[in-house]
Design a protein that fits this description.
- By secondary structure, this protein is of the alpha+beta class.
- It is 26% helix and 23% strand.
- The longest helix is centred in the C-terminal third of the chain and has 13 residues.
- The protein is globular and about 45 Å long.
- It starts with 15 loop residues before the first helix and ends in an 18-residue tail after the last helix.
Length: 179
């Protein structure tokens, strides 16, 4: 099998690689969570989706990591926020690949969403360790869009169901250097 980042998926099970990786992120155990977006929820806006949902339904936001995996080859954690009420988790942010369940690791360090790295990667083979380092270097220059801009640009779940597609990362031109 050729390595392809498009093959990243939610781990089918918590094998030794997944369990070990999750322990490097948090002392909290990973949990499978159903993806249940509201029609108004916006792509790539997990924190704002959860904040808005809490305004309407109470509950709490849980900051942590969504786990993506290519079995025995590569694993990554993506910064993510989910909703919790009465001990029950719910992921309000739809996945652009249509996956309906995620593996989530709540962060045991109580820091804000923006204080976490966007992604944490680990290659499990020599080739994927090298690729993980390359992708880390490539992403050092990526600027994140403001929450307001992202909310205004990204499609809602309703739009996505109707066929609207947009990349999760949109290149933002660098600001001119005014020396």
């Amino acid at each position: 099998m050729t390595f392809n980042f498009e093959n990243l998926t939610t781990p089918e099970s918590i094998d030794q690689h997944v369990a070990s990786f999750c322990r490097t992120l948090s002392s909290e155990p990973p949990v499978y969570i159903d993806v249940e977006p509201e029609l108004w929820c916006k792509q790539s806006n997990c924190e704002m989706n959860v904040d808005k949902y809490i305004e309407q339904n109470s509950g709490e936001k849980v900051i942590g990591y969504k786990i993506w995996y290519i079995k025995r080859k590569y694993i990554e954690a993506e910064r993510h926020v989910v909703y919790r009420k009465d001990g029950v988790y719910k992921d309000l942010t739809f996945n652009t690949d249509g996956e309906t369940i995620i593996l989530f690791v709540p962060d045991s360090k109580k820091i804000t969403y923006d204080e976490k790295p966007l992604k944490t990667r680990m290659g499990l083979t020599q080739k994927t360790r090298h690729l993980a380092k390359e992708y880390d270097l490539l992403e050092t220059g990526i600027r994140q869009m403001s929450q307001e801009d992202s909310w205004n640009i990204m499609p809602s779940y309703e739009d996505w169901l109707k066929g609207t597609r947009m990349a999760n990362l949109i290149p933002v031109p660098a600001k001119p250097d005014n020396r």
